[in-house]
Amino acid sequence: MSKDNQVLEEITSKEYEHGWTSNIEMESAPKGLNEDIVRFISAKKNEPDWLLEWRLKAYRHWTTMKEPKWPNVTYPEINYQDVIYYAAPKQKAKPKSLEEVDPELLKTFEKLGISLTEQKRLTGIAVDAVLDSVSVATTFKEKLGELGIIFCSFSEAVQEHPELVKKYLGSVVPMNDNYFAALNSAVFSDGSFCYIPKGVRCPMELSTYFRINAANTGQFERTLIVADEGSYVSYLEGCTAPQRDENQLHAAVVEIYAMKDAHVKYSTVQNWYPGDKDGKGGIYNFVTKRALCAGNHSKVSWTQVETGSSITWKYPSCILKGDYSSGEFYSVAVTNNYQQADTGTKMIHIGKHTKSRIVSKGISAGRSQNSYRGQVHVLKRAESARNFSQCDSLLMGDQCGAHTFPYIDVENNSAKVEHEATTSKIGEDQIFYCLQRGIDEESAVALIVNGYAKEVLNQLPMEFAVEAQKLLALTLEGSVG
Amino acid sequence: MNTVVETTPILSDILGSLKPEPGLKTDAFNSLEKMGLPSNKSEEYKFTPITRALEKNFNFANSNPQSELNTIDKFAIADVDAHTLVFVNGIFSETLSRYNQTDLQIKPITGLEPGFGTLADYKTDALVAWNTAAWSSGFSIEVNPNTTVNKPVVFHYIHDTTKAEVKSFIRNIIRVGKSSNLTIIEKQDTVGEQPGFSNIVTEGFVEENAALSLFSLQADNGKRFHFGQTAIMQAHSSRVNSFTLTLDGKLIRNNLQLILDGEGIESHMNGLYILHGDTIADNHTVVDHRKPNSNSNELYKGVMEDNSKGIFNGKIYVRPDAQKTNAFQSNRNILLSDGATVNTKPQLEIWADDVKCSHGCTTGQLDEEALFYLQTRGIRKETARAMMLYAFAGEVLNTIAIEPLKNYVDALISERLHKNF
User: Fold this and answer.
1) Taking CB atoms and an 8 Å cut-off, how many pairs form between chains A and B?
2) Which residue of A405, A409, A476 to mutate against B (max B Cβ within 10 Å)?
3) Is the ipTM here above 0.90?
4) How many distinct structural domains can be found in chain A?
5) Which residues span the domain enclosing A118?
6) Which of B333, B341, B352 sits opposite A411 (nearest CB)?
7) Is residue A309 part of a domain?
8) How would DSSP label each residue in B228-244?
9) In terms of DSSP bridges, do strands A26-28 and A87-89 run parallel, antiparallel, or are they unpaired?
10) Domain count of chain B?
11) Of the residues B228, B261, B294, which one is the last residue of a structural domain?
12) Could you read off the pLDDT of B125-149 as tens digits, one per residue?
């Protein structure tokens, strides 16, 4: 018995696994934000003038904007002048191959389980790793290049494919879209760029791995995915950060542009440092993600597993512009301790016969607050639009909260829109059944939660699904009883 | 609430027309001055352009015209024997009213009643603030403990706009004593072609083991602009049933708020809105579970035709103490025409874990297959359509327990749906 307790103790006190920092020489901009910093970042990246102008325009617009107060989260005022907007691992020259990359850096990613060096061994996933603000390595580039797929860091894309970047940057999330998107547009330092040519089915999962390492920095990356006619890509995103007492800001933008018959699948496992059990530290995750289904019969599906961040503010959305286009949103958001999440989606039906499906599963434990906020908007010309939304909340413990704010706006009389939401706790009978079969309470909860989230986890690619399942169990440890 | 303050001419007209006495009226006046009328950016009035509508249709510097109305028989609810309190253009009409005080006390409102101003919050809602600063008449209805009131009380709000536009501000307070019961019916009607604006705030206290039924019938085919706030505080084991019917009007906004401040409470909120023309009907409901072991159930259904717009916002709060709460909410809409819109926002905010809460919301059309089935049986398409809509409305209609009232509402709905089977 005592041994059991010991094991239990060990597991429940298990804290954030990725909380270490690596000792990499960094180069960073001074604290604060002004036009000079924007110019500094742009110059660092050796960017063309149009991009600098674009950034400055975004910055000037940002200064006129107010931070949004409507999300159902509370946090102390952010001092935007106290953040370092650019930090990059110091490199003497641009590495030509992986052998030249700083070994410390490679070690960092190995610790995270991302093998940049093992690209010969077929892991089947092409990775673009972003440390702090800069993309450090992209794997499988050549193989993808054979198919005409462009998968590289954003700065590289700016240099090598400026016409594509110029055409699509800001086409889905304009630089003045919202407060955090404008901030990102002004200071984004890197990110991933991906272009799938006409009719190409990307043979492997593309993946970006984000990690914040340096203290006091904000991470502002930008992902742009362009899927040309009839193409298919599945894209994965993972994130971690070291354990620090102060809060760090992460304001990313993801844009997806899907043309006729294109299909994009975007999956995220978000595991930023959530703060300790007293709510100290953690990442503010203020992210704008949006997809434009521009062409007919295009399809975008978002899958997210949100377990980290002290505050999450994120609404991966789909603008269904093409006729017969469809959007999907599958989400599991878990909050524990003092975490706060306000997440959901927007499905804007513009084209005829557009379809959308929303499945959102919220799980709150400890003293956390978990909100679903979503909008389904059927515009006047969106004939025969169809939406189904389901958002369920599971409450564990009597100190947490679950909230749902769905907006349903229908302007077309041929639309069919359904929404349902439930809130409940794990049934005592379910727990009892498991106990009776010799499954202890902790495992029983993990089992039930996994079952509850199955519908969403099933949407994830295999490798991610396993990780996500483990993460779920880990996040909820210690929340029973 | 994020009200964006704009000093509009309408606001200065309104403020200029008010001469509040010191006390609560002045506080509310100041609050209104500070908040301003809701703009389209304000979350609570996002889809209801009430300020613009008032600006376009009213001049608040003018006072109400005199009315020569001497009969209201055509508006009466047949076969319902009731205490009837009639207001014409915001002023109580002794001659048109019919009531006695055998089971209950009916007194003109003074503003000094215990609990006055405690439920309807003039600090957060500009229209409540306006009412609190501007009310000119209304009643305090009180039922002693252990009393069964057999006759319902009818509040009949009539606008006589034959000469000019009308603005009315009415304030009521209701108190149902322990183990007593009371039924209230609110009805709006208009004589004349000019627009009318009514702002009516009712606060109610339902004590232990008491029951209150509230009916609101809004089938006013005049140019009615209406804001109504009804806030009810429920004590242990009390029951509240509400039914709101909206068939007509220009812009109707109903705020209904139930505070469940006790255990073993039952609350039922039902609503039906069948809209045509350019009517905008907005139902905002709040159910606030504060204590454990209570049940609430909400069902709102809407049919929108022509260019009408239906808005529904249902909030359910379950506070940390309110364990073992059951709260259900359902909102279903049918859009019949190209120009019709619906904006709905069912909202759950839950801070207790041992609860069962759900909401459901649908928007769609009449089922083509069912329609076809009826047609294959030799039923004309129009009749089939009316049958299906009538059945859709029937679920809410059947919650009315008072037979003559149900028949009256049934007749109104049947007329609207051109039911002739």
Assistant:
1) 115
2) A409
3) no
4) 1
5) 20-314
6) B341
7) yes
8) EEEEEEE-TT-EEEEEE
9) antiparallel
10) 2
11) B261
12) 999 999 999 999 999 999 999 999 9
